[in-house]
Amino acid sequence: MASVGQITRQISALEISSKPNTTRPATTATTSQHQKKPSQTNVSKLLSKYAAPNPFPSSTSLQKTASTQSLAKNAEASRPPSPTRPKQPAFDIGRYDGGFEIENETRGEKVTGQAAEDLALDSSVAAYRPTREWHLTDFDIGRPLGKGKFGRVYMVRTKREPHYILALKCLYKSEIVQSRVEKQIRREIEIQQNLRHPHVLRLYGYFHDEKRIFLMLEFAGKGELYKQLTKYGCFTEKRSSRYIDQMADALMYLHSKHVIHRDIKPENLLLGINGELKIGDFGWSVHAPGNRRKTLCGTLDYLPPEMVEGREHSEKVDYWALGVLTYEFICGAPPFEDLSGYNATYKRIARVDLKIPSKVSPEARDLITKLLQYDPERRLPLSEVRKHPWIVKYRSKGHSTASAA
Ligand code: AMP
Predict the structure, then answer these.
(1) What is the per-residue pLDDT across 85-125, written as a single tens digit (0 to 9) for each?
(2) Which CATH code of 3.40.50.410, 2.70.98.70, 3.40.50.10780, 1.10.510.10 fits the domain covering 225-394?
(3) Residue 268 labeled ligand binder
(4) Does residue 269 have its Cβ closer than 6 Å to ligand 1?
(5) How far is the CA of 132 from the centre of ligand 1 (A)?
(6) Range with lowest mean pLDDT among 82-86, 228-232, 302-306
(7) Spatial contact of 182 and 121, defined as CB atoms under 8 Å apart
(8) Is 143 in the pocket of ligand 1 (CB under 6 A)?
(9) Domain assignments of the chain as residue spans, ordered by start
C-alpha cells in the first residue's frame, strides 16, 4: 500500500503546469474538421474546457490512472487545444469586487515564530519535484463564491494559457492561530492535496504571503449541496440514490488511502459543473493507517454511537454517516435530530432510536437500516452499498459499476 509520502511525491508531479501546450500531435488538421464549436449557452461544456485538469474524468478510469505516468497523460489530454486551433471564447468569471485587497487592509496580522513556520505553506517548494511558484498576481480574479470562517473564496482564471478556471480560497493565518487549528489546517491541506477522485474536490496547489494562505481548489460549478437541500427540503429517491452511490465510491477511495473522513454531512459537500457530488472539506479527516482513534469530532447529528460514547472508532464511522446522509436526503432532516437539545440527540444515537417515515421506499429503508447499525462491524460494507438494489435501480446507464464490483 502506498504511503501518504509516496502519494504526495507522485502527485506533486501533477500540479498544474504553467506551460502552454505546444506538443499536440500533427493530427490537428484532421481533428479540427470535426471540431464542434461549443455554443455560448452551454456553460457547463465551456466551463469543462477550462476547468483545471482532473485526471479522473469518470470512476471507470480510477484503476487505470493510478500511476503518475497515466495521470500526467490524462492531464495533458484534458488541456484546451493548442494555439494553432481557433481560440474558444474565454469563460466569463464574473466581476471582481476587490475583496482580497480590501480585506487584507483590515483583517489579519503577521504571524511569527513556530506558528509562522507551521503555516509557511507553499507547494512550489516541496522537497521533491518543486513546481512553479504561484502568486495572487498570476490570476484574473472573478466573482466571489462565498465566505468561509477564515476568509473569502473567489472564482479565478490563470492569466497564462491555458487559462484554467479555479476557486481560490484565502485563509488568514492569524485567525487560524487564534482558533488554534494550525495543525488541523495543515493536515486538511496535506490530505486533500494527495487525493484524486472524481467525487473528491481537488486541491491543485497552495501558496502564501505574510498574512494569508491561498488554496487553489477545483471549481465546484454548482456550489453547495446544502443550499440545494435547503431549497427543496429533501431530494427524490432517485437523486438521493445517485448521490449516495457517488459518496460510497469516494469513501471507498478515501478508506483505501487510510483516510477516514469523520465529518460527512451536507454542509461539506459541493456540486461539480455537471451536478456531480464532491467531498469538499477535510477539516476533521485523519490519516490513520491501522490506527483506531478516540477523538470526539464532527457534528453531533452525524456521529455514530461509538464516538458519542467515547469508544475507539475506525473507518466504519463513515458508513454510519452515509446512513444518516441517506436518511437526511430523503426525509429532509437527520434521523436522530432532537430539537430539545444535544443530550436528547446523544441518547437517541446511543439507542439507535431510528424511526423511518412511511413515505420511504422499502429498498431505501433496507439500506438505511443496514448502515445505521450500533455495532460498526455489522454495518453494510461500502462495496455492498454500491451493489444494493436501491443504488443499482437508479444508477444511470452510462455510469460504470466497475469500482462497485
Ligand atoms: P468555505 O470556506 O470552504 O466554507 O467556503 C465558503 C463558501 O465558498 C462555500 O460555502 C461555497 O459556497 C464557496 N466555495 C468554497 N469552495 C468552493 C469551490 N471549490 N467551488 C465553488 N465554490 C466554493
Answers:
(1) 445 556 788 899 888 888 888 888 888 888 787 777 777 66
(2) 1.10.510.10
(3) yes
(4) no
(5) 25
(6) 82-86
(7) no
(8) no
(9) 92-219, 225-394
Nearest CA to ligand 1 atom 11: 146
CA 131 – ligand 1 centroid, Å? 25
For residue 51, list its beta bridge partners.
Answer: 165
Q: Which three cell numbers stand for residue 116?
A: 509562522
Determine the Cα–Cα distance for residues 24 and 84; give it in Å rounded to an integer: 10
Query: Do residues 65 and 29 lie in contact, with contact meaning Cβ atoms separated by under 8 Å?
Result: no
Cα three-residue angle 102-180-15, rounded to 5 degrees: 65
Does 219 show up as a binding residue in the annotation?
A: yes
Q: Is the peptide bond before 389 cis (omega within 30 degrees of 0)?
A: no
Distance CA 137, CA 159 (A): 8
Whether the full predicted model's pTM is greater than 0.85, yes or no, is no
User: What residue has cell string 447499525?
Assistant: 373
Residues serving a catalytic function are 263
Cα distance between residue 163 and residue 66, in whole Å: 26
CATH T-level topology, domain 92-219? Phosphorylase Kinase; domain 1 (3.30.200)
List, for residues 24-39, the tens digit of each pLDDT value: 333 333 333 344 434 4
Mean pLDDT of the chain: 77
Span from the CA of 337 to the centroid of ligand 1 (angstroms): 26
Are 248 and 386 in contact by the 8 Å Cβ rule? The answer is yes
Q: Kindly report the number of other CB atoms within 10 A of residue 84's CB atom.
A: 10
Average confidence (pLDDT) over 72-83: 37
Residue of higher predicted confidence among 19 and 233? 233
- As a whole number of angstroms, the distance between CA 64 and CA 2 comes to 16
Cell of 381: 460494507
Q: Is the CB of 153 under 6 A from ligand 1?
A: yes
Q: Give the β-pairing of 223-224 and 269-271.
A: antiparallel
Of 225, 87, 101, 102, nearest in space to 163 by CA: 87
Cα separation, 267 vs 226, whole angstroms: 5
Q: Are 191 and 285 in contact (CB under 8 A)?
A: yes
Phi, psi of 155 (to 5 degrees): -80, 130
CB 240 within 8 A of CB 294: no
The H-assigned helical ranges of 78-236 are 99-106, 113-118, 173-178, 182-193, 225-232
Residue type, 213: I
